[in-house]
Amino acid sequence: MKKRLLFLLTTILSFNCYAQISFEKGYYIDNNDQKNNCLIKNIDWKNNPTEIEYKLSENSETKNVSIKSIKEFGIDNISKYIRSKVNIDRSSENIDNLSSDRNPIFQEEELFLKVLVEGKANLYEYVDSNLRRYFYSNENSNIEQLIFKSYITPENNISENNRFRQQLWNDLKCPNFKMNKIENLEYKKNALVQFFTEYNKCHNNELVYFETKQKRDLFNLSIRPRINNSSLSIQNTLYDSRDTNFDNKIGFGFGLEAEYILPFNKNKWAIAIEPTYQSYKSEKRTNVNYVSGGVLIANVDYTSIEVPLSVRHYFFLNKNSKIFMNASLIFDFNSKSTIKFTRKDGSTLNTFEVNSTNNLAIGIGYKQNDRYSLEARFQTNREIMSDYNFWSSEYKTFSIIFGYTLF
Questions:
Q1: What CATH number is given to the structural domain containing 259?
Q2: Judgement on whether residues 97 and 190 belong to the same structural domain of the protein
Q3: Where in the sequence is the signal peptide annotated (predicted)?
């Protein structure tokens, strides 16, 4: 079963043509200032790109073109990027790596900047992993970075260089702007977009605001009943006679999943948490000589709440259907669960309280109309006798999970 799942995972990963990263109408301007209408592969870049993939028509060959060959590109009514040689400060904002120098450390780079607001004054964004910088230009001026930097003071405190506020106060004048408006301005996308929008409206200037059109219902709540096929084996390193392989049992479980769609990369990534009730009961009889009656009876009664924390990736087939796969870390919380060894006459030899550990899972599924889903999930071995020396166990579960999204 594990080999089949791994094969299916490999097949899905290589099935790139079905991802909802589609070619959309756009253009690029080359170094000769020639505008070329084309179809651009829109991957909703989380980080600013250094190249694009395009084709001239639906049936034409796909080509790549780098930042060295194009001055500008855009996807109609969605996004626009321009190439610019700018001074950028890449100082870390990570608390553990803060500099003691409050001044930016500039280096000249040629970058694609994402246009956020375009008008009398323009606002641009550059993102590279955890680095986020904003740039601006005013009419025919050069593009400059809006300066913000966290740093460590001589007293070992964290302070901020908010030079960007002074830049905006000096360069973007509007009669309606008061000093406190600038003083309270944050170095964040939404705040800066609003400021530049208000500035352009103040000057009655035609405004273009670029905003990636994303799915807005980023939170999903689903009920998830399931059929579980579970098995348990336990071993004792001192007494082989206590080794027991319980039978595979078909059981039922029920989960409630909260899923958050990450707002980038065309809604293809999500994280989810899913508290789930599961239960496993089994009995095994073994003929042994040292027990009165000659029969050793092992009973397991294992009930728990599993809480998988999952990372999910979607592969879109069309507007109404998609395949997904997830990797999960499962936290398990058992309740009054035991493994008992008894004689044929009912007297108890040993009682062990179950104490389970965390384990992993992989799953592959299909979702229709953002409402109905079906998933196959395989869990790795789980240890449920972690409190006892000389004992070990392997609890395995394969699940078929049905899902219905409430909202």
A1: 2.40.160
A2: yes
A3: 1-19
